[in-house]
Amino acid sequence: MSTFEAVYRAVAKIPIGYVTTYGDVARFVGIRNPRVVGYALHSNKTPNTVPCHRVVNRDGKLAPGYAFGGPGVQKQLLEQEGIEFEGSKVKIDSQLFSFT
Prior knowledge:
By secondary structure, this protein is mainly alpha-helical. The protein has helices spanning 3-11, 22-29, 34-42, 71-80; strands spanning 20-21, 55-56, 85-86, 89-90. The protein has four helices and four strands. The strands form two sheets. A two-stranded parallel sheet has the order 1-2. It has a two-stranded antiparallel ribbon with strand order 3-4. Strand 3 (85-86) and strand 4 (89-90) form a beta hairpin. Helix 2 crosses helix 3. The radius of gyration is 12 Å and the shape is globular. The two termini are 21 Å apart.
């Protein structure tokens, strides 16, 4: 399985109404650089199966170059799933998904 495939399988496990970070996904799949997760998600061809909008940076910020319509679309998708925001960041007490 390729690194990108491993990232896609991991992200597909994030349930509706939860978010996780690039770093958490990277640790789960055994890669050192969370940016690789970002590269993989930017290349995601199946956003309905691999919900890349549920991945944010370690500070809760949205992806500035969200591949499927920009950060406004990412925020809208997360809000539709019940994630709350404080400005452009996911609210601290939002549901965080852990791979453990």
